[in-house]
Write a structure and sequence with these properties.
By secondary structure, the chain is mostly helical. The protein has helices spanning 10-25, 32-53, 58-84, 90-115.
């Protein structure tokens, strides 16, 4: 199956849901620097998937997917900090961690696929 739009990628769709989730969880956080950092990291995930997709070739797409994966790790790490600082409950941490892990699994699956495929545009 050929995918012609980044919007059709499951990993991008999951990243979009992650952004909505992070924004909702931290909407009342008054530590604006912290809130900005975790929100930017979440947006970075979906943005890098989209940008890499439209770069054209596997090599660049893989590069951007690894950046997206790094941003997922940043979101997850910041979620632990948020819990330690009292901004996030243990239950919310678990939900956010699960969402990060699920998105990472989709990104990793696409990385494995691209390493074995010849993507042409």
């Amino acid at each position: 199956m050929r995918i012609d739009r980044f919007e059709d990628l499951e990993c991008w769709q999951a990243a979009r849901e992650l952004v909505k989730f992070v924004y909702a969880m931290f909407s009342v956080c008054r530590d604006y620097a912290f809130r900005d950092q975790i929100q930017r990291a979440a947006v970075s995930v979906m943005s890098n998937i989209a940008e890499g997709f439209d770069r054209g070739g596997n090599k660049e797409f893989l590069h951007f997917l690894t950046i997206a994966r790094g941003s997922l790790a940043e979101v997850k790490s910041l979620a632990y900090a948020a819990t330690d600082l009292g901004y996030l409950s243990d239950e919310s941490l678990e939900k956010l961690s699960e969402q990060c892990s699920a998105t990472k699994g989709l990104v990793n699956g696409l990385i494995r696929y691209l390493r074995g495929a010849d993507r042409k545009r």
